[in-house]
Every structure is written in structure tokens, then in C-alpha cells.
Amino acid sequence: MMATAAKTQKEQAAAVEAETAEQEVAEEVYKNELASPGSEMVPAEPPSQPPATVASDFFGGFGKSAAVLHNFSGTAQQVWAKVARATGPTTKDAEDCVGKPIFLTHFYCHAVSIVDKQTGELFDNMPRIVLIDKSGAAWGFVSRGILDGLRMLLQSFSGVLPPEGIQIVVRRQKTRKGFYVFCIEPFDEIVETA
Fold it and tell me: Model-level pTM greater than 0.85?
């Protein structure tokens, strides 16, 4: 009985240590985040908890605290390299992929703060989503439409992308008020719009 209790305490201590290490990595990513060239992004405040590992935790996280969600795997160094690429200057502009097929294999979502160029107003906790294709090319979006599209995609696949990836297309959709939003659609079901 005593051996079991000691083993349980060791397991709990190891779990707390692992959670603390994940938190430190997440905070370091936020501190060292690089914005894409030409953008006016600044890192959001570090998360108060470890990055979300379940899509529902993440999608509910905006507006409450900074959240991070990705589907990267590998060693800690491999994951860090993927995170650095997703948040670094090599991420392509969203407009570069509109209407073109993307074979989506990975994604990275995090919160950023955006400065409105006209008013100077700061918007905190805006979702930035990076879509990464099988070649490693990455496109960054600060878009609720892409966030919602990714959420629906993940819900359709029980919270994870298929291991082989999925072919999608990003398109621009006009709202009733005349604004444009980005959305994600399956590539094989593209509907041409004027």
C-alpha cells in the first residue's frame, strides 16, 4: 500500500513537472514571436495555462486568455522548429493562397494583438491561424472565418486532421454588409462565385 502511494506521488510530481515545462516553452514562444514582414502584430500576453491540447479548449479560449493549438509532433526540438517557422517571417501572406488548393497537413493557432493602422487602436487576443501544407509552405491569417472553418474541419474529424492531410481551398466571401471574410472549403466542392 505504501509503495503504491509513493508511486502515485512520484507520478503526480512528474506530471506537474511536465506541465510546468510545457508552460515555460509556451511563454518562451510568446516572448520570441516574430511577426510576418509588413504586419503590425505584437505578441499577446503569455497564456495563464499550458497550451490547449483539445480543440474545444482552444476555440473557447479567445477573449478569455491567450491560447495555443497545433497538431505538431516529434521531439521537443522538432516541435519548437515547427512553431518557430509558423510564427516567423517565412509565413506567406493570406492573399497568396486564396482560390488555390492547399493540401493541409498541419496548423498552428495562437493569439496576437493587432494595431489598426488608421486609428492606432490595439485589438488584443485576435486569432492568428497558420495553415501548413505537405511541402511545408505556411500561410498566416488573422481571421475569425478561418478560425471557425478550422474548428468545423476538426469537429468533422473528431478533433484531429487525418494523418495523410486533407485538400482544402481558402476563399474570400462577401458578407451582407459588404465586408469580405476568409473561409475554408473542401477542395473538391468549390463553388464559383462572382
Answer: no
